[in-house]
C-alpha cells in the first residue's frame, strides 16, 4: 500500500513539474480592441494612367499589448519569436435563421519586442462587410461585441472581450462564424503605411 501511495505521489509530482515546465514564461498584458472605420487610402503614380474610383470603408482592428520576458529570454531587451491572436467580431447583423454574423480571424505575430507598447492590426474589406451587413458603409455602431484570445506555444495566456472575461463566441449555436475573411495589413492597400507602428503578421 505504501509503495502504491509513494508511486502515486511521485507521478503527481512529475506531472506537476512537467506542466510547470511547459507553461510559457512570457506574460502578455492586452488592452481593448479599437475597432474603427477607415477609408481606402489614395496613392498617385506618374506612369500608370488614371482610373476613377471611390474610396470605401474598411474595418480596422487595432490590438494594443505589451509582453514581458524573463531574464533568461532577454528580459526588457529580449523579443518573442511569435504569438498567436484570434479575434472574434460580432456584427449587428443576423442570418435568416436568427444567428448573429461573427468574423473570426487568426494570426501569428512575429518578433515581438519585450517591454514596449505594441500594436497588432487586422482588416475586413468593404466587400465582405457589405455581404455580411447587407448595406454600404461601415461604422463602429455595426459592432455588437468583440473578443480575442492570445496563445503562446499553444497555451492560452491572455484574453478579453467587450462582454467580460467569458468567451461568448463559444456559444456556437447563436452565431454564424465567418472564417478566413479577416486580412493582415500586408494583404490590404494599407500595407505600406505607418512604418514600425505595428508588429509583423502571418495569417494562420
Automatic annotation (TrEMBL):
InterPro entries: Amuc_1102-like. Residues 1-19 form the signal peptide. Keywords: Signal. This is Carbohydrate family 9 binding domain-like.
